[in-house]
Design goal:
Elements lengths: L2 H6 L2 H10 L21 H4 L2 H10 L5 H19 L6 H10 L1 H17 L3 H15 L5 H10 L5 H13 L1 E3 L10 H13 L3 E7 L7 E7 L1 H10 L2
Antiparallel strand pairs: 1-3, 2-3
Length: about 230
């Protein structure tokens, strides 16, 4: 591909091609690469999608653009590691034959990856896409889950895991390890905001009429957790 062809290829087209046929070395750990040095490797700088990102930068890539490149590579590696997933061939065929579907999918992927703060979140995003392809939820739910990736913290996954295993738990007795109890309470509130957790007040008969809160993972939270868990 010459320079003129490269400049005429949009990042969406490059993403589409990469979803259909991987050009990545899936054995490479892109997450471990330093952002500043990510283009110092020929195996990376010669990837068509990376060339498209570089072309958009014209002269050179900023730190933000290099970080975007790293997130894209981590997303694609996770996606292609599940290339034998159910319905993957139907998904790829639809990308090839349905222009509106292709545009919708690639635009959503680019927009979400661009706003995600870390490459770890980009990996979780790939997991969400795989479960969409497997028809475990619809497009609207996929977009909803993708929004939460902007907010999610590691403790949120641990809290969901604990509640998934136990079905419910008193918040103060949650088994999640944290140095700050208030971080755990903040996690519960974050998960509650998106409908992944339900919190109820429990009254205990006693001289103080003490109230305690009990958290439950919701059906929506269960679907989300099953999508992103290792």
């Amino acid at each position: 591909m010459n320079n003129d062809e490269l400049q005429n290829e949009t990042i969406n087209d490059a993403m589409y091609k990469e979803l259909i046929h991987s050009s990545l070395d899936v054995a490479m750990d892109y997450g471990e690469l330093a952002v500043d040095s990510i283009l110092n490797y020929d195996v990376i700088s010669e990837l068509p999608i990376v060339k498209s990102i570089v072309a958009l930068g014209r002269i050179g890539l900023s730190i933000k653009e290099k970080h975007f490149t790293k997130k894209v590579l981590c997303f694609l590696k996770e996606f292609h590691s599940k290339s034998s997933s159910e319905n993957i061939m139907e998904f790829k065929n639809k990308l090839n034959t349905d222009q509106m579907f292709k545009d919708k999918v690639t635009e959503q992927i680019i927009l979400v990856i661009d706003r995600l703060k870390t490459e770890q979140r980009a990996v979780l995003f790939a997991k969400l896409l795989i479960d969409l392809i497997q028809e475990k939820y619809d497009w609207e739910t996929f977009c909803y889950f993708s929004e939460f990736l902007d907010l999610i913290q590691l403790i949120d996954i641990a809290v969901l895991s604990d509640l998934f295993i136990k079905s419910s738990n008193e918040i103060d007795n949650n088994a999640v390890t944290t140095f700050d109890r208030y971080m755990m309470l903040a996690s519960i509130e974050r998960l509650k905001l998106y409908g992944f957790v339900v919190v109820k007040d429990l009254a205990f008969i006693g001289p103080s009429d003490e109230f305690k809160k009990q958290a439950y993972i919701s059906s929506l939270g269960t679907v989300f957790y099953n999508a992103i868990k290792v």
